[in-house]
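Fold sample X.
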Amino acid sequence: MGVEKYPEALEFILHWGEMGTHWGANRSVAQVHALLYLSDQPLDAEAICEALDLARSNVSTALKELQGYGIVRRTHIPGDRRDHFVAETELWDLFMAITAERKRREIDPTISKLGELKERMAANKDLPQHVRDRIGRMHEFISTLTGWYEQVRGLKKSTLIALMKLGAKVARFVPGGKD
């Protein structure tokens, strides 16, 4: 894909790279993702390097990370020995893959640490009550949120989309939810 021929595509790639830095991703990783997302055909690493003017090592690292997230996959083209890459283009699947990986990398270790602290706090009688309460509440909150996430993740895509479109109207189905 000759990105330089399409200013809107280039603008999207640059913006996605910038936003990636705010979301905790490396700019190059986000730009590689954006290029693959926009591409209508699989791209090899050299084509990615050329399109984005990135070093081969940056592209290799980016591709490994994106594959780790499950949002880019390796594919082969008959007659071509090089690996090619394609991005997930179904937005809901993209969102769910990123969410699952972020949960695994960020939330799960936090829940584990909070659980460990909760056990240790039970034995430490010198710990101020407000510290004990706040860590306990944080553990309970994140655990509840994670349980909700796991339940929601198990719903069909069509159900999830319908729930999202309901927005705040879903509160009418919850006792006291209209307040």
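Fold sample Y, listed below.
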Amino acid sequence: MIQVVLCDDHAVVRRGIRDTLVEALDIQVTGEAASYPELREVLRTVACDVLLLDMNMPGRSGLEVLESLRETGSNIKVLVVSMYPEDQYAVRCLRAGAQGYANKASDPVALIEAIRTIMQGRKYLTPEVAQMLAESVSDRTPEAPHASLSERELQTLVKIASGKRLSEIAEELMLSPKTVSVYRSRVLEKLHLTNNAELTVYAIRNQMV
């Protein structure tokens, strides 16, 4: 039996994934968490072979959770399940230690395939992610300017482009407005832009929103 823990701050999403995994007789959901502190507590109390991890959570983000798991030497396999398109985060997650990346908009049944795949010791790669990895290795395609952004900077860019105010972003990421403002300034500097309108145009052109 493959024992799975779900980590997503949206209860409706967790329920949808749980209902999907019920279809598989070889998979059992042993725990759920809505944040990193909850996840740590859950992992202390239940068995977990595979962690289904959301990227965008309050407090520590998905990449930071991956880093923490790697630092502790955890042997839990991680499948990142995110609303972000593959070209924004998939390669970052795989390099950070995830065994696979799935988009929340994809076929729910694919989650079952993904879990079984990574339990066999293989990476779960969609054709799109495989192509991106191939291009990153061959280095034939120049990186987009936003590839130089940190995860928090990338999150800030996407949220600003989605029309959210700095105060809203700060609340969602559990950061101070001042910290979010610093991230915004760094994004503008790295992308050579001057205001939120230009950030939004950039994000739309690069299919980030």
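Sample Y note: DSSP finds ten helices and five strands in the chain.
Also: The domain at 2-138 is CATH 3.40.50.2300 (Rossmann fold).
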